Amino acid sequence: MKSALLASFALAVGTLGLTACGGGDSTEAKVDDGSQAGISVTGASLVLPAVKGNPAAVYFTAQNDGDRDVFIRAASVEGAESTQLHQMTMANGVNEMGEATSIPVPKGTETAFAPGGNHVMAFKLDDSLAAGGTTNVTLTFVGGRTATFPAEVKAAGSER
Predict the structure, then answer these.
(1) Domain residues for 71?
(2) Would the pTM count as exceeding 0.85?
(3) pLDDT tens digits for 17-31?
(4) Which is one Pfam family of this protein (predicted)?
């Protein structure tokens, strides 16, 4: 009996150890009670600008396992004075970046916020945001519910 308990304990500790060694892109944040149900976020990062004073970009993937479509209408970033949702659109054969009023996350799908597509621009960054750190990002959905998750702060030019 003691050996079975010891083996179970060793297995649990080993599993926790392997979980702790996971890569940075595996960060997953499920929203808490009172927040937007069914939404989870993975791979969140804030990429610092190459030139101080320019905006940073926030990338992540939002998964909607809820029972209805949701729309992200705003974002905020801890350590940034303001933010904007941006999306790429095709106009006259040219791909253009512009501010979005909302970005859909249809039920049963995921929506990527990635270079060349949807993303969050973070303006007037606080000096406390430094590569290797983390910051919190809060998404606000149509209807007022929110989802907050950590984002890894990366140096300019870093891969998402």
Answers:
(1) 24-154
(2) no
(3) 333 333 344 455 555
(4) PCuAC
- Which DSSP string corresponds to 5-68? HHHHHHHHHHHHHHHHT--GGG-EEEPPTTS-TTEEEEEEEEEPPSSTTSPEEEEEEEEE-SSS
Contact call for residues 48 and 153 (beta carbons, < 8 A) = yes
Which CATH number belongs to the domain containing residue 79 in this structure?
2.60.40.1890
Both tokens of residue 143? 């209807």
Q: Are 45 and 60 in contact (CB under 8 A)?
A: yes
Q: Based on the structure, what is the number of domains in the chain?
A: 1
Q: What is the CB neighbour count within 10 angstroms for residue 130?
A: 13
Domain membership flag for residue 44:
yes
* DSSP annotation of 147: E
Give 48's DSSP letter.
Answer: P
Q: Classify 6 as helix, strand or coil.
A: helix
**Taking the alpha carbons of 47, 84, 25, 28 in that order, is the dihedral positive or negative?**
positive
pLDDT, tens digit (0-9, with 9 covering 90-100), for 97-122: 999 999 999 999 999 999 999 999 99
Rounded Cα distance between 128 and 81, Å, is 13
